[in-house]
Design a protein that fits this description.
Blueprint lengths: L2 H13 L4 E5 L7 E4 L6 E3 L6 E5 L7 E5 L3 E2 L19 H20 L4 E11 L5 H11 L4 E7 L3 E7 L2 E6 L2 E12 L10 H18 L4 E6 L3 E5 L2 E12 L6 H8 L7 E2 L1 H11 L10 E10 L6 H5 L6 E9 L3 E4 L3 E10 L5 H16 L3
Helix pairs in contact: 2-8
The protein binds ligand ISJ.
Length: about 375
């Protein structure tokens, strides 16, 4: 199937108002798609299902599944679709409300054991009559290092995003995850310096992920160096974390329970931060800061094999693969407007005005595709 065929199929599916997802993994050349023939709302219950999961922030709510094996294109994505000059429209009332929210969090951090809380908001942006698949193409061609997707279900809505954050990659006994936090604008170079605030904020995430992983039966754990990662017009601090479990067939449900939500999108201690978010944010995050991606796809991803091995099935390394991403830099699409979701981590060193500006910068990466 060519990329063009897959886009046509998605357009037809959207016109019929049936569930589908199109996505491209970070740095990948090929596009994937899953299509459902009816509008049934499948839930993910055991995490042993196969398909594409779309799960909300609130871990007590169930995720939605588009079941099946993805169709993959065979050609390289070449079409160009430029970003636009849409400027995010900010309102002084929204600014005042966000600054007040950050100040409240700063008081809570000073007066309790709360160390970090990620606070977010929803920004509405009017859009002209543009097909969401066109918006998806703009994200796709401009955010190569991101996981880029469009997801549609008639009973839920249409979501799009270009996220820089992996929640969990799992293949057999091998896993990969990352600690991503701290933000500054990209101004042409990744050789930048970071302040103590960002280094502290990101280290909290790394430490917490490691602690949570250590409750599992690990054979090895590798923590990379802290590095600067470019995500569109923004830079983040990132530490790659990988390893192997002692046994195959890890209980994905309990792994995800241990990892999600990470302090990159919730805070520390987790329950206290979540309570603060639920009580104070004053809107429903829905799928923003939830997770999404491939669940238990049986694949042969072994690298180059000799001719003899190709012919010998015994050499095939078919393994279940799961690749989940955190739903950041995303929006909900309706015919007249886009609801853009953005947030940032608040610690003792946060400046409320700068935190507001950070959400505006993050919103701009998505608004440029409208
Ligand atoms: C919460 C978001 O991003 C998260 C918060 C960051 C920060 O506070 O610097 C950086 C990356 C993400 O971990 C978002 O993009 O909405």
């Amino acid at each position: 199937m060519t990329t063009e065929d897959l886009f046509s199929k998605a357009n037809a599916q959207y016109a019929k108002n049936l569930p589908f997802v199109l996505y491209r993994k970070p740095e990948a050349d090929l596009l994937n798609g899953l299509f459902q023939e009816d509008d049934f709302l499948h839930k993910v219950e055991t995490f042993e299902e196969t398909g594409f999961v779309f799960s909300p922030f609130d871990k007590d709510k169930t995720g939605i599944l588009i079941p099946g094996i993805p169709e993959v294109t065979t050609d390289y994505i070449e079409e160009k679709a430029s970003l636009r000059s849409t400027i995010i429209k900010t309102e002084s009332a929204a600014e005042a409300a966000h600054i007040q929210l950050v100040e409240k969090a700063l008081a809570a951090i000073q007066n309790s054991v709360l160390q970090k809380v990620v606070l977010s908001r929803e920004q509405s942006q009017e859009i002209e009559n543009v097909n969401p698949i066109t918006i998806f193409k703009r994200l796709l061609f401009n955010y190569k290092t991101a996981f880029v997707y469009i997801w549609h279900h008639p009973q839920v809505g249409t979501w799009l995003g270009a996220t820089p954050e992996t929640l969990l990659s799992l293949r057999g006994r091998k896993f990969e995850t990352m600690a991503l936090a701290g933000t500054q604008k990209f101004t042409g170079s990744v050789a930048v310096t970071w302040g103590d605030k960002e280094i502290y904020e990101q280290q909290l995430v790394t430490d917490e992920i490691i602690t949570n992983l250590q409750s599992f039966d690990l054979r090895s754990l590798h923590v990379g160096d802290r590095e600067t990662h470019q995500a569109g017009t923004l830079l983040h601090l990132r530490t790659l974390i990988s390893g192997t479990f002692n046994t195959e067939g890890q209980n994905l449900k309990s792994l995800l329970k241990a990892l999600h939500p990470t302090p990159a999108v919730c805070g520390l201690p987790r329950d206290l931060a979540k309570d603060f978010i639920m009580q104070e944010e004053n809107y429903d995050r829905a799928f923003y800061t939830g997770f999404l991606g491939e669940l238990n796809i049986l694949r042969d991803t072994s690298k180059k094999r000799s001719r003899r091995n190709v012919e010998n099935l015994a050499y095939k390394t078919l393994k279940n693969e799961t690749k989940l991403f955190v739903n950041l830099r995303c929006m909900q699409y309706t015919d007249s407007k886009a609801l853009i979701y953005i947030g940032g981590g608040i610690t003792v060193a946060s400046n409320p005005k700068l935190e507001w500006q950070e959400t505006v910068n993050k919103a701009q990466t998505i608004a440029s595709a409208l």
